[in-house]
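Onboarding guide, step 5: your first structure request.
Type a short instruction followed by the sequence, for example:

Predict the 3D structure of this protein.
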Amino acid sequence: MHVLVTGGAGFIGSHTVDVLLKEGHTVRILDILEKPTHLRGKPDYLPEEAEFMEGDVTNRRELEKALKDIEIIFHFAAYMDYLTDFSKFFHVNSAGTALLYELIVEKDLPIRKVIVASSQAVYGEGKYLCKEHGIFSPNIRGIEQLERGEWEITCPQCKSVATPQITDEEVVNPQNQYAISKYSQELIALNLGRRYHIPTTVLRYSIVQGARQSFYNVYSGVCRIFCLSMYFDHQPPIYEDGMQLRDYVNIEDVVKANLLVLDDPRADYQIFNVGGRKGYTVLEFARILAKTFGKKFNPEITGEFRFGDTRHIISSIDKLKALGWEPKNSVEKSVRDYYGWLNNRVVTEDILDYAEKKMKELKIVRRIIV
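The system replies with structure tokens like these:
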């Protein structure tokens, strides 16, 4: 089949391109190569067998050109990070997706399926249990609470500390600009897909890890931050108390999920979590990473927090498992893969300093007020 991968030069997109080519598909990549993610331009890992088009999913002419003769679309192009240019999140993620469906309908394109990349971020703080008052979905923790160093989610009624639960696809409570834009993207894709009979599947990824993650985003995955810290013989910074729970999924498992929903009609017009099955605390993850790097681990609890971080979030994968998928690769493998990738790149130490300074400048990283 003829496949378009928007954002195909990126982390998840490029790995998906590789497997699509191996399975005999004809692949076209549309990517804007935006900085800082692609600071050095077109990545050297993109295969020559894939047609590459530099272009913008919000540009009608460029997107229409990329859609010529296409049957399948993997829509990975997105604006992410933690910057305050709020409108850009919606311009790229929401309007770009709307334009995609607009062109499919307007030009009566023979699209057989669209797979849209979304995020665990749409859950916000996810689902919690109060022993007395039951299940609830909290809003983001307030700045006053965080400045007091009170990290845990509490029941809105009795104020007791609540217990995080595995979060399924029905719980949606986006709390930041990226998450809100991704949820709006989901609504656009699924509703327009149903209305105009364009089979569409949405995948909500947990924290995806492995080779090719960009070094240059200001706010990005813990694997990148911790690996770079240890690569330059720094102890990784631990925000809050390091007991935040996260679930991580290897990029190889993510690509298998992408290809599974492409081939399975049961996935049409559905949303699926793609996660790592279990949660790890940030400190547990840092210990795994230190062992992989052969470094001593002396965690530095900085007395700082990132405003907007969720406290705990673990996604249920039961729905996707019912289609025959489950994660096979360990967190340790993800770290080894990223470490190997890092060792083959030209990386300068100022990347970490730049990201930290930028987050403090934007008041994303803040300090506890004792």
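Each response can be followed by summary notes, for example: The chain has one domain: 2-367.
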